Amino acid sequence: MTALDLDIVVTRGRHVESRHAVHAAVMDGTGRLLAFAGTPEVAAHWRSCAKPFQVHPFVADGTWETLGWGDEALALACASHGGEPEHVALARTMLASVGLDERALACGPHVPLADRGARIAAHEGGPTRLHNNCSGKHAAMLAACTVRGWPTTGYDAPEHPLQRVIADTVRRAARLEQRQLDVAVDGCGVPTFVLSVRAMATAWATLAHDAAHGDAAARRILGAMAAHPFLVGGTGRFDTLVMEASGGDVVCKVGAEGVHCLALRSRGLGLALKVADGAARAQHPAVLRLLQRLDALPEPLPPSLAPFLVAPVRDTRDAVVGEIRPAA
């Protein structure tokens, strides 16, 4: 077992001004902890890193085939997308195929996460629910309800049969007992799960291991995300760039408040990371340093990713006065 230092420091001049503590775990498919940073048993809200597991049961039971949806829709269901026209159009098509429109979505509108998406949405009159980064997930949830014969109203409630099936899937993947899984409300309105960082990594390791050992649903989910990185993130988005740079071997999924989860497909490993204070500025450099420590990305990084590892700190005159970078 390897101990890692993934903390991120913020400098000003020659001195460190701030330090962000990072907890992380690297798990294999047998449940072994291979490497860690900080305290891997610390609990956190899983947020959007849970999306592949929120769709998994409905890929496994044949719902996806019943719907006739392809891997592009599957990638969007697992996405925290940038609200660009391609994302919005696909989410709209997914809903229309089951006789619904954006009014059925339980998520609210927000400014798109991609700069391109935000500019276009502003020009077109502002964001809608379809621009929500979770609209693909919500469209998939609604479609699963129509196929299963469950009510589409209230699908976001923890007691809805859809959410109970998803919670069971999360427990199995993370190797948890029922009493070990707590829930809260995610930013998009559906349940989010409270897990240890180690349990998050275990779930992603389960997904990667199962995909490599014949589980068709796991293989299709990771394959769809790897094949369509733009749909998972968007123009200039971190997850998209990591998957492109790794040739799809790394499947990368952002979560809010400093949570990130990844699968190393060729090695069957699951990775999870939590910036203790939730600071977004520390999240990307910590993920990249972890991938470098595991030899999943090179040193130096390709040009598309290098600016995420070390970022400048600027004053109000736009002069560089420090940097955000890994402590080690």
How does this structure look, described?
This protein has 328 residues and is of the alpha+beta class. The chain has one domain: Beta-lactamase (3-Layer(aba) Sandwich). Helices cover 39% and strands 21% of the residues. It has helices at residues 51-60, 63-67, 71-77, 85-96, 115-123, 135-148, 161-174, 197-212, 216-227, 229-232, 238-245, 280-293, 306-309; strands spanning 2-4, 8-12, 15-20, 22-27, 33-37, 43-45, 182-185, 191-196, 250-255, 259-264, 269-275, 311-314, 320-326. The strands form three sheets. The chain has a six-stranded mixed β-sheet. It has a four-stranded antiparallel β-sheet with strand order 3-2-13-12. The protein is globular, with a radius of gyration of 19 Å. The two termini are 18 Å apart.
Largest sheet: 6 strands, mixed
Q: What is the number of strand segments?
A: 13
- Kindly state the mean pLDDT as a whole number? 97
User: Could you name the CATH topology?
Assistant: Beta-lactamase
The radius of gyration computed from the alpha-carbon positions, rounded to a whole number of angstroms, is: 19 Å
- Sheet with the most strands: spatial strand order: 1-5-4-11-10-9
Count the helices. How many? 13
| Shape, principal axes of CA atoms | globular
Helix content percent band: 25-40%
Task: Give the class from helix and strand content and strand pairing.
Answer: alpha+beta
Give the strand content.
15-25%
Number of domains: 1
Oligomer: single chain
- Secondary-structure element pattern, one letter each: EEEEEEHHHHHHHEEHHHHEEEHHEE
Distance linking N and C termini: 18 Å
Per CATH, the class reads Alpha Beta
Task: State the low-pLDDT regions, or none.
Answer: none
| CATH architectural designation | 3-Layer(aba) Sandwich
